[in-house]
Write a structure and sequence with these properties.
Blueprint: H1 31-35, E1 40-41, E2 47-48, E3 54-55, E4 71-74, E5 80-82, H2 83-90
Antiparallel strand pairs: 1-4, 2-3, 4-5
């Protein structure tokens, strides 16, 4: 006869504030600069290809679909992403996240 014992283990996780030392200067835009960027609302419907399949565009940053009614920013390179996603990105960066 084999005796199997169950052991209970209590894990204690101690939360500590995350401390980040910035070694690279912030290359992002200021909040004011981001607020002044022109945005638009997606008005067009998703395209349907010759086979009847819907071509749906995704936001590179959050991976969600870009749908009719979403607020978008179109960058100089032509890429379109959700406005909120790019606002967060541009706090630390000043380039297109795709290019």
């Amino acid at each position: 006869m084999t005796l199997i014992r169950e052991a209970k283990v209590d894990l204690v996780v101690k939360e500590q504030p995350l401390q980040i030392k910035r070694t690279v200067p912030n290359r992002g835009y200021t909040v004011k600069q981001i607020e002044m960027m022109p945005f638009f609302t997606k008005e067009e419907e998703d395209e349907v290809d010759d086979d009847g399949l819907v071509k749906r565009e995704r936001c590179y940053l959050c991976k969600w679909y870009i749908e009719k009614g979403n607020y978008l920013l179109k960058l100089e390179c032509g890429h379109r992403l959700h406005k909120k996603c790019l606002e967060v990105w541009f706090c630390q960066n000043n380039t297109c996240p795709i290019c």
